[in-house]
Structure formats: structure tokens, C-alpha cells
Amino acid sequence: MGTQSDFLVGLTGSVGKVDFETLYQIELPRIYNFFRYRVGDDQIAEDLTAETFEKAWKHREQYRQDLASFSTWLFIIARRLAADHFRKRRPIVSLEEARRLADPQVLEEEAQERADFRRLSALLARLAERERELVALKFGAGLTNRAIARISGLTESNVSTILHRLTRQLRAQLEKDYE
To answer: How many structural domains are present in the chain?
Structure first.
């Protein structure tokens, strides 16, 4: 069972023969959310998402349907970019973000949302690299355990067990923080 983009590519047999904009629209939210969970910063997630699609576009003729589904291929590109990002990571705050943070008109709801996301990001940062990536693929990108298994090289059962344990652990830590 693949994604809608995998179905479209399967109909034509090639990424080059499918309207890439359609594939982009289908996969954009999942790739963006993967990065958002992975790096914990919206701007960096946007940049890495754009870079992922740029690389996929440039190398679309090299995609081989017999080796992986289109969405799996796209997430392999995204995983490599995330790894590169963490290798060369330098904390930078954009001027726009600094201006927004200094604005006294920031809504309380947005502040609470950001606080919750920061709390979750802090908990995710404490996880091992592999566990953090599995959470990002499952909850950020919304992939199935089967798709995660293909991308990560783990068995589907192992992915399920690890994610179940991590979900329980993270939920317990978040509840403890709210007490």
C-alpha cells in the first residue's frame, strides 16, 4: 500500500512523466512535518523541505521504481539532508523570528502552542538518534510502520515496538511536566 504519489508514479512508470507539481503538493506536508519533528524549527524545516524537493527534481531521472516507491525515495533524500543539517548545525535566529519574539502582541494561544512544541522538542532531543528519527517519520511525516521499516532497515515489528515504547515514555514525561 503506497501513497497517492506512488500510485501516480506507478501509472506512468517514471517520475519524469508525472506532473512534478502534483507530487510536490501530495508529499509536501509529510516531508515538512518530518523535518519539523526532526529539527524543531519551522524555518529550518521549510528550508530542508525545499532542498529535498529540489534534489528530487534535479535527480528525478535517476529514480528507479523497481528499488523503492517514490515516497520512500523522497524520504531517503530527506533523511540524508537531516543528517547533513545536524553535522553542520549552527544555532541561528532569523531577524524576523527575533522581531516576532520581541512583539508584545504575541497571542497566548500561539505562545502555549510553541511552549508545548518546545517541551516535546526537548524530550525528543534526549532520545537516541534512531528513536528521534522514527518518531519524526511516524508522527511528523505520518508514515506507516511498513514504510518506516523500508526506510530505516528495521523490521515492521521492531518499528512498532520501538514506537509504542517511545510514545508511552514521551506521554508520561509530558504529563509529569504538566503536574
So the answer is: 1
